[in-house]
Each structure stands twice: as C-alpha cells, then as structure tokens.
UniProtKB/TrEMBL annotation:
BP terms from Gene Ontology: carbohydrate metabolic process
Organism: Streptomyces antioxidans
Family that this chain belongs to: Belongs to the XFP family.
UniProt-recorded name of the protein: Probable phosphoketolase
Stored Gene3D superfamilies: 3.40.50.920, 3.40.50.970
EC assignment: 4.1.2.-
Domain of life of the organism encoding this protein: Bacteria
Domain Xylulose 5-phosphate/Fructose 6-phosphate phosphoketolase N-terminal: 16-376
Keywords carried by this UniProt record: Lyase, Thiamine pyrophosphate
Domain Xylulose 5-phosphate/Fructose 6-phosphate phosphoketolase C-terminal, residue spans: 593-795
Length: 797
C-alpha cells in the first residue's frame, strides 16, 4: 500500500474546509438517493410538490443503516483517490442496499453496467423506481450491485468474506463495515480471529469498521451498549487497536472520520512495509474503526409523537403511511428537501462537479474495482495430468487405496504449481491430515501468525492451507477468495459441514443471480470434499453420522448445484479434475478416506464419470439376456462395495438370475432432463434402470432422496432404496451397514423378495442371508471386529 501523499489541509492539520464541504455534499446526495429509492415512484428531483401518486404503493427497504454506510462510502472515496488505493468494501449491514446503490450511481459505475439507469434525472427516476419493485432489484446488497462480493440477505459473514478477499492479494485493501446487529452472530464473533491467519507479506489488509448505530429491528445491540472501556478491551483482546469516531453533527463527524481513516491507513502501510522490508517479528495489531452515529441519522426525528431517528423505529421505513397520511407526506417532503437537492444535482439531474471532487476514477471506484467481479481476474488452474496419480487396476476389486490420500497427491501438485501465483487454497476445520490430504504439506504449510512451538508441525506464516475449528470461518474465507478471482477446496467431515448450511444457501443464490448478469464474469466453483463420512464414523459414533448435506444442496437451484459420489480412487481423481476446472457451481464430492477397493482404471473411471451413471457389466450376470431380472444400483463407495458383494453372492447361489449392476457417480443424473442440466431423459433412464423390473438401490445417504429425484420415472413403483436411516452408534464398519439394512445380505434378501418367482425357489438362499446377519451380531459382540468373511472379502467374480 502506498504511503499517504501530502494533501491540502487546514492549519490544524485536518482536511481543508472546501474538502470537508465536498465530502458533505457527496454524503447528502447519497442520503437523498437512498431515501428516494425507498419512497419515490416519480418526481425524483422534487421539481413539484410531492403528491401521493409520486409515492410507491409498497414501501420497502432499510433506511436506518444507510446514512452510516453512505458516510463510509464517501470517505473511502477520498482516501482511495488521495492514496491511489486498490480497495473494495464488504458491506456487512447488507440490507442497506439503497446506500451502496447510491454510491455506485454517483461514481458512474452503476450507469456503466446498466446504461438505462443513466446518471441524470431519467436515470435517477429508474434508480428509484426499480428498488424493491417487481422486475427491479433487491433491497439489500446483492449480485446486481456493482462493487459487491457479499450477499446482504443474511447477516454474519462480512468479516470472513473480507479476509478471504485479502488473502494472496498483497496490494488490496478490504474495508469491511460490520453492523452492530451482525456483530452479535456466532460467525461474525469467530471471524475476529481471522487476523491470526493474515500474512502481512503475501496478503492484503482488512480494515474493519464496526458501525454502532445502537439498534437492530426492535432491540438495542449488545456492543453498542457496552461501556466504552469494555468494548475497547474486547477489540484489543481480538488483536485490534481501536480508533473511534462518534457524533451526530455532520461536519464534525466528517472531520473525525477523515482523520480516523488516515490514521488507520497510515498504520496499515507501516505494518506492511515493516513486515515486507524487515521481516515479521510478531503478529501485527491491525486497526479497527469504531463508528458511532445515530440510526436513521438525518431522517425524521419524530413521527406520530414517537421518537424515530436514533431509535429502532428508524430501522426500515420511518414514515410508513405516506400515501394515506397527509402529515407523513409533508414530513417526507421536508426530509428530502433538507438535503438541498438543488445544490447537489443540476437541472438535468446530473451530480454537480463539486460533490464528485473526492470520487476516484476508473477501476479505482468502489463500484468498478475488478476484485469485486473476480471472474475478470481469474486464471485457469494448472490441474496436472491424472495419469501421474492414478492407481493401477488390473482387475476390479483386487487392490485397495485410500481415495483422499490419492487425491492429496494431485492437490499437492496443484499447490506447488501455483506457488508463485498464489491463487489456490485448501480450507478445513482442523482435518486436513485426518482426511488424508497431508501431502499438501510438502508444497505449503498451514497459515499461522501466532507463536510456534518446537512440537508444532507444518505451521507457516505464508502457508496456503487454512485450518481453524470454525466451519463458518472456513466457508467465509473460501467464498471471499473465490469471488475475488481465485480457486479453492473446502475439506470437511461430512456430518459437520451442516454448520454452514445457511452460508452455502446464500452462495448458491449469489451464483444463480450472477449467472444471469452478463457483466458478472464466471468465478471458480465452490468445491466441497466431504469425507470421514457416515459409513466410516463407526468409531466416533452417532453424533458423527449424518449424510444429509447432499439433500440440502440438491434442494437448491439446479443450474448451480452438482453432487458427486465417486466409488473409488480413480473416479475421485476424475471428479476432482472436473470440479477444479469448473466455474459458477457448488460441487459436493463425497469420498472416503479409509482403504477402498479399486474398481476402475483411469480410462474406465473417466468414461464412467463422463456418463455420470452406467452399467458395470463385469459385476452383473445379464450375459446378453436382454432386460435383466433385477437391477442392483449403488451410489457411494460403501454402498458400491455392498452391491458388488451382493452381486457376487447372487452369481454364486442364484446364477440363473440376470442381475444388472448400475453405479451412479453424479446424483443429479437421476433427475429428469427438464429439471437439471445433468438429468437423464426418460429414454436414457429407462434404458439403464428398465421400466418395470425391480431396482434395489443402495445409496450413501438418506433413502428418500433417491425417491424424490426419480419419482416421475416409470420404474419408480418398483424402486426400493436402502440407505442411512438414523441407525447409528459406536460399532464396527460392517455393523453400520447392517444396522441400516444396507449390507450385502440384506440386499440379496431384497432381490429375492422383490423379483417375481424368486421368493419360493430361493427360500434356502434367503435363510442363509438371514443367518449370516445373525452370525454377524454374535461375532462382533464377542470379538469386537467384523467377521473374516466380511473383513477379508474381495471381488472374485
């Protein structure tokens, strides 16, 4: 970050009065535009007295936070221009959308993206009309908002996103406005620790701006009511040095805010310069600005005899009855005219030059910075040839490998090949080595800025593996990293990725909307690797057994979400190759870390993954018989093993039964083509699963998902799904599948029960299967391990 230049100032060392007046004019203009978006349908410049028909029929939006956001936007403009900063801002109080829209309209970036919303009276009218209006734009900061990387629909994630954006961006300043309501959330509280992972040499800087306006929707906020010394102690305990700005007299606040930003940026420049030129002695203590201004500042002081400005009543629409209540209409007109719009806009509605004097130009504008449209900066990831990492498979089921360990070799190479670019990171909650990805540590260390003890391993100030025991923070880091034009992977235990259910919702919604905006360039996909999965959490027990994240994701926008269940190491490599190269998706990959049978060689794996679902002829017994008697299908590594074992039993005991074995890698293939881009046509589905034969489907997760995905298919009445049904405990691996009726013996019994004509003539075989299940229960209680016929099983078909 460049040193602060010498700027014209007053004799006491602050900004000159004319510059303060210019900042105030810009702020008043932004406040006018923010209020106008909430209320006005017509008459944007108040060229005639306000009438009810000038007012929107439904008043939506959030005024209370907007004046504070406008203040930050105004003053960030000034320091960006003065210091030639490369900067973006994450707007935590995301429902303050009218403020951020106002700022981008004033700097011209909005009109460049949306030419019909021109920077004149006609464009101002469109800006006002479209806000929270059918066919318009949302009330919160959203993908449609130029300069944004942060969906404002849900609070708690701003600071994590800001740090993610700063990682590996050494020249970038990321300002982050944190609302005091948002500051009460768990994810935001955890995010204060992100400064322990920020490398002042290779990363950019984050400047948190804690905006305390005192209230949420209907209640006071915790941090705003803390005594000042206690709040300072809290922020210092988080590793920050607070700088305070407070007041309600605009010119005084402008001077204080200008001084605070200069002080904060001078400190940041010094910390970075020291670290980069002299080395790092200890973790820097970064500045934080604490900004106290009234909620709904400059809006109506009182409405219907009740105080509004400075209270929770200013949160959304301070004057709710403007169309029906003449007094409210008069108050609104007085409020809007208090900004003196005739001084701010010329007769054609264009901003007057003096209020734009402190606004930067080109890509330096907050609404135009390419880091906030990360696809502009994205480079293809150098994914190496898979042949180097593939495991040899001479015949199916003869060897075993740990799939994620094999993947770790590929990720190591990707990390090594991006060492100079620094645009690839792996995040996870303290589980990288546990998930067999420790090969990464040969290419990079784990990011860490605190002290290092002799017993520590792989810690590095410049590491690109991010581990912290907060799934929220991992998710937020990666989202911010991806949205600013980089690549990454989130590795997590399957059961605990649910912690970020709500966060992934917001990211999926962001991607869905972004894909429809031509000016938003595609970004790298958000890739999850879920391992330590339900079927191999036998040692940790019931609390660690939950495969439902897949269900959650598949509820979302089909053009964005993808779910893959590779059954072995080579299919995992093929899937990883695809997802790491993909754009604008959320990819969920579920794969085991325990030794798993190798079923397909690399060429077979690539072909199978390209199909997404297919027949494994070597495992079945159709032998050209036309349609099979029964279909055994599987999705997931453990279900695949059980299906193959069941097929072997049927081959041995019922060789005249024509069994088709189907494996599904891409769960969205089960959907109709009309419902998902990867879905099968009815013809394709019927050819694979038949129209009327029994289908026994062994599925990795909750059985009803397969039913939901395929309920329209002709074969659905004959579809029987086995999967996890909340029958978990601390037990043996095979007992997990037995408890949930997913085991090979149960699958053979299902075939006998559901294939016409088998129930009578295969009674003896069915009884053997039941006896095997009974024998299993006795064995594990005596020996504590699985039966040799299971533990030592391999495919010999």
């Amino acid at each position: 970050m460049p040193d602060a230049p010498t700027t014209p100032g007053s004799p006491n060392g602050g900004l000159a009065d004319d510059r303060i007046r210019a900042l105030d004019a810009h702020w008043r203009a932004a406040n006018y535009l923010a209020a106008g978006q909430i209320y006005l349908l017509a008459n944007p410049l108040l060229t005639e007295p306000l009438r009810p028909d000038h007012i929107k029929p439904r008043l939506l939006g959030h005024w209370g936070t907007s004046p504070g956001l406008n203040l930050v936007h105004t003053h960030l403009n000034r320091v960006i221009k003065d210091r030639d900063l490369d900067a973006i801002c994450v707007w935590g109080p995301g429902h303050g959308g009218p403020a951020v829209l106002a700022g981008s309209w004033l700097d011209g970036s909005y009109s460049e993206v949306y030419p019909d919303v021109s920077r004149d009276a006609a464009g101002m009218a469109r800006l006002f009309r479209q806000f929270s209006f059918p066919g318009g734009v949302p009330s919160h900061v959203a993908p449609e908002t130029p300069g944004s990387i942060h969906e404002g629909g849900e609070l708690g994630y701003s600071l994590a996103h800001a740090y993610g954006a700063a990682l590996d961006n050494p020249g970038l300043l990321v300002a982050c406005v944190i609302g005091d309501g948002e500051a009460e959330t768990g994810p935001l509280a955890g995010s204060w620790h992100a400064n322990k992972f920020l490398d002042p040499v290779h990363d950019g800087a984050v400047l948190p701006i804690l905006h305390l306006n005192g209230y949420k929707i209907a209640n006071p906020t915790v941090l705003a009511r803390l005594p000042g010394p206690e709040l300072d102690d809290l922020l210092r305990g988080y590793g920050h040095e607070p700088i305070h700005v407070a007041g309600d007299e605009p010119l005084e606040v402008h001077r204080a805010m200008a001084h605070a930003l200069d002080e904060a940026l001078d400190r940041i420049a010094l910390l970075q310069r020291t670290a980069r030129e002299e080395g790092i002695a200890e973790r820097p203590r970064w500045p934080v600005i604490v900004l106290r201004t009234p909620k709904g500042w400059t809006g109506p002081e009182e409405v219907d005899g009740l105080p509004v400005a400075g209270t929770w009543r200013a949160h959304q629409v301070p004057l709710p009855g403007v169309r029906e209540n003449p007094e409210h209409l008069r108050q609104l007109e007085r409020w809007l005219r208090s900004y003196r719009p005739e001084e701010l806009f010329d007769a054609d509605g264009r901003p007057r030059p003096h209020l734009l004097a402190e606004v930067p130009e080109g890509d330096r504008r907050l609404g135009a910075n390419p880091h906030a449209n990360g696809g502009l900066l994205l480079h293809s990831l150098p994914v190496p040839d898979l042949e180097r990492y593939a495991v040899p498979v001479d015949k199916p089921g003869a060897t075993l490998h740990e799939p994620t360990r094999v993947l770790g070799g590929l990720l190591e190479k990707v990390t090594e090949d991006t060492a100079d670019r620094r645009d690839f990171r792996v995040v996870g909650p303290d589980e990288t080595a546990s998930n067999r990805l420790e090969g990464l540590y040969r290419a990079t260390g784990k990011a860490w800025q605190e002290s290092v003890l002799p017993t520590d391993e792989h810690l590095s100030r410049s590491g690109r593996v991010m581990e912290v025991l907060s799934e929220h923070l991992c998710q937020g880091w990666l989202e911010g990293y991806l949205l600013t034009g980089r690549h990454g992977l989130f590795s997590c235990y399957e059961a605990f990725v649910h912690i970020v259910d709500s966060m992934v919702n917001q990211h999926i919604k962001w991607l869905k909307v972004s894909r429809a905006l031509p000016w938003r360039r595609p970004v790298a996909s958000l890739n999850y690797l879920l391992t330590s999965h339900v079927w191999r959490q036998d040692h940790n027990g019931f609390s660690h057994q939950d495969p439902g994240f897949v269900d959650h994701v598949l509820n979302k926008s089909p053009e964005v979400v993808r779910v893959y269940l590779p059954p072995d190491a080579n299919t995992l490599l093929s899937v990883a190759d695809h997802v790491l190269r993909s754009r604008d998706y959320v990819n969920v990959v579920v794969a085991g870390k325990q030794p798993c049978f190798d079923w397909l060689d690399l060429d077979q794996a690539r072909a199978h993954c390209a199909r997404g679902a297919g027949t494994w002829e070597w495992a079945g017994t159709e032998n050209g018989a036309g349609e099979p008697d029964v279909v055994l299908a599987a999705a997931g590594d453990v279900p695949t093993q059980e299906v193959i074992a069941a097929a072997g039993i049927l081959r041995r005991h019922l060789p005249d039964v024509a069994v088709r074995v189907v494996n599904v890698v891409d769960m969205t293939r089960l959907l109709p083509k009309e419902e998902h881009p990867h879905g099968m046509t009815d013809h394709e589905f019927d050819a694979l699963f038949t129209r009327d034969r029994p289908v026994i489907f062994a599925y990795h997760g909750y059985p009803w998902l397969v039913h939901r995905l395929s309920y329209r298919r002709a074969v659905h009445p004959n579809l029987h799904v086995r999967g996890y049904k909340e029958m978990g405990t601390t037990t043996t691996p095979f007992d997990m599948v037995v408890r949930n009726d997913l085991d090979r013996y149960r699958l053979v019994m299902d075939v006998i029960d559901r294939t016409p004509g088998l129930a009578v003539r295969a009674t003896a075989v069915r009884q053997r299967m039941q006896d095997a299940r009974t024998r299993h229960q006795a064995w594990i209680r005596e020996h504590g391990t699985d039966m040799p016929e299971v533990a030592e099983w391999s495919w010999t078909g």
